[in-house]
Amino acid sequence: MDVAFEGRVALVTGGSRGIGRATCRRFAEAGARVVVHFRADRTAAEATLAELPGDGHLALAADLADPVAVDDLVSDVVAACGRLDVVVNNAGIYEDHPVTGTDYAAWQAAWQRTLGTNLIGPANLIHRAVPHLIAAGGGRIVNVSSRGAFRGEPGHTAYGAAKAGLNSLGQSLAQELAPHGIFVTTVAPGFVETDMTEDHLAGARGAAIRAQSPLGRAADPDEIARTIVFLATPGTEYATGAIVDVNGASYLRN
Ligand code: NAD
Fold this sequence. Notes:
Pfam families: adh_short_C2 (PF13561). Residues 8-212 form the Ketoreductase domain. GO terms for molecular function: oxidoreductase activity, acting on the CH-OH group of donors, NAD or NADP as acceptor. By secondary structure, the chain is an alpha/beta fold. It is built from eight helices and seven strands. The chain has a single domain, classed as NAD(P)-binding Rossmann-like Domain (Rossmann fold). It has helices spanning 18-29, 42-50, 67-81, 104-135, 148-151, 157-177, 203-211, 221-232; strands at residues 9-12, 33-38, 58-61, 86-89, 139-144, 182-189, 243-246. It has a seven-stranded parallel sheet with strand order 3-2-1-4-5-6-7, with helices on both faces. Bound molecules: nicotinamide-adenine-dinucleotide (NAD). The site of nicotinamide-adenine-dinucleotide has 25 residues, from α1.
């Protein structure tokens, strides 16, 4: 068994399914004690827990759009595990709200919800976690952004803006936190086969999306998980500040 993370505690938000679930599995395989964060589906979180090798893993619930719940989550992790070494801001929502087809009240609510979950939630979690990462002698933060942060997508204005904000957050924090031994990276996936994209990847629309990549397919969640775990692995410190595309060459940027 790989032991790169032996004695370390990794908190993965949205760990009950999709990319988060695959990431929990990869961290556990690399020797970490994993905290599987979930919003409401305890059954799914416990199913993730059941497939993790090693001991001491736990599942904790919190609505990341609620700053009090985020504070409690970090306190509960440290109370249960005694330390925190790695934070993966993976949880997110992906809603379709075209500006022309959405009434003003729904538009307001969508922007609040999307920024609250995809940008402010991670920022709050980082604020609460950083003192514990410092206390652990340094740590890692990996934020899960999106290709949509760079190229945008019709109907996903708030999503793209939130993910672009997450990219910027990571770059500022990488500079701010390096002196504390905390290294911050961002993973920007293209389309991944998860519940989030089930509708998008169905039928002719799905075929068009898969054709955007010369690989002719969307990613498997495990391909994103491996990149996340790699960026948190000891020895990759100098990658801090990086935004790593995992999009099957469907979108290339300088
Ligand atoms: P998913 O829908 O399977 O998982 C998202 C998780 O986030 C769920 O477990 C959900 O409960 C959790 N979550 C959502 N809102 C929450 C809240 N307020 N509080 C707590 N938890 C909350 O999606 P996924 O595809 O695994 O996506 C994981 C991350 O990857 C997201 O940030 C997403 O934006 C990003 N991403 C996904 C794709 C893709 O194609 N699937 C592409 C680019 C980026």
